[in-house]
Design brief:
Organism: Methylorubrum salsuginis
Order of helices and strands: EEEEEEEEEEEEEEEEEEEEEEHEEEE
Distance between the termini: 16 Å
Number of helices: 1
Radius of gyration: 19 Å
CATH topology of one domain: Methylamine Dehydrogenase, Chain H
Strand content: over 45%
Protein name: NHL repeat-containing protein
CATH architecture of one domain: 7 Propeller
Length: 321
């Protein structure tokens, strides 16, 4: 699932084939989609969307047989909060305008974690699917200080760790899942604007995209405990082709070029085998991962493994537009 400015692109992908096959796709349109940014599947046919200029909206997805080139959908529920600010609100951050509404969303069990730039918060909301609708509670704040421009969030599968991209400060902040206190921060001299985040299933590895550069960074914790700050990633590798990267860079005014060009959206498939990234001018890149619990040819998976020498991620498919 990809998010253009006023809609969504839904794709049918066969990850069992080699090479991976991308089949049908449809452009989803709805008046309730207003700068969609964060996307989360709650089930195979139930989707929630964090809209930068509006609210969190929920949709039932049509079956593949009903896909058209453009498929109209209607929200089955909408959720707003004072933490998101008024619809359409924006504010200044470092001299540029940013949209205040919900930007990133992740599910962990029966809660949704929602990031918003209104006052730089992460909130946690109970939800339930009942009949044909969604019930969502008012929730509580998980993070309310220390962040500026939150573009991504990931929760480890056991719920012990919450990773949040703190874009304006060039870092990823890790919070404890139980008391929501900050445990550590992750940085790298080549990581300028962290955006998309994703823990692997073992929560020993965290994938981080850089909105402004080609590199995809991977941070590692040998025991899955994120209590120690890091000043460099375990390794990094190019994640976007030159043509797409420079096309995006030169599509915006010069003062904004440091902020664009790289991968933004980032997620793993449920098996944890395939890492998927998307950005402007490169609709999708799919990488096959080597689990953090395995070794390659007797070598530990550490920083010395590069793209040219036993890469930890093998690009499986790239579709460019």
């Amino acid at each position: 699932m990809l998010a253009p400015k006023q809609g969504l692109v839904l794709l049918q992908i066969d990850v069992q084939s080699d090479p991976i096959q991308i089949g049908r796709h449809t452009h989803l349109r709805s008046p309730s989609l207003e700068f969609p940014h964060g996307i989360e599947f709650l089930s195979e046919d139930l989707l929630d969307v964090a809209n930068r200029e509006a609210a969190v909206t929920f949709y039932r997805l049509p079956s593949v047989e009903d896909w058209q080139d453009v498929t109209q959908i209607e929200a089955i529920a909408e959720f707003t909060s004072s933490w998101f600010g008024p619809k359409g609100a924006s504010r200044l951050s470092d001299g540029r305008g940013v949209r205040c509404g919900p930007g990133s969303i992740r599910r962990h069990r029966d809660h949704l974690y929602i990031c918003a730039n209104h006052t730089n918060t992460v909130s946690k909301h109970p939800f339930a699917v009942r009949g044909g609708g969604i019930e969502i509670g008012s929730g509580e704040l998980v993070v309310e200080t220390g962040l500026e421009l939150i573009d991504g969030i990931s929760i480890s599968r056991d719920g012990q760790w919450i990773a949040v991209s703190d874009s304006a400060h060039g870092r990823v902040a890790i919070f404890r899942g139980d008391d929501h206190s900050e445990a550590c921060e992750l940085r790298d001299k080549d990581l300028g604007y962290p955006h998309g985040l994703c823990f692997d299933p073992t929560h020993k590895r965290l994938y981080v995209s850089d909105a402004g550069e080609r590199l995809l960074h991977v941070f590692e914790s040998a025991d899955g405990t994120w209590e120690r700050s890091m000043d460099r990633s375990a390794f990094s590798l190019p994640s976007i082709g030159d043509a797409a990267f420079y096309k995006t860079k030169h599509s915006v005014p010069e003062e904004f070029r440091p902020l664009v060009g790289g991968i933004k959206g980032l997620d793993l498939d449920p098996s944890g085998r395939f890492l998927i990234g998307t950005c402007l001018n490169q609709i999708m890149a799919i990488f096959e991962t080597v689990p953090a619990t395995q070794a390659t040819n007797g070598k530990a998976l550490e920083a010395k493994i590069t793209v040219d020498d036993e890469p930890i991620l093998r690009q499986a498919c790239r579709v460019s537009v």
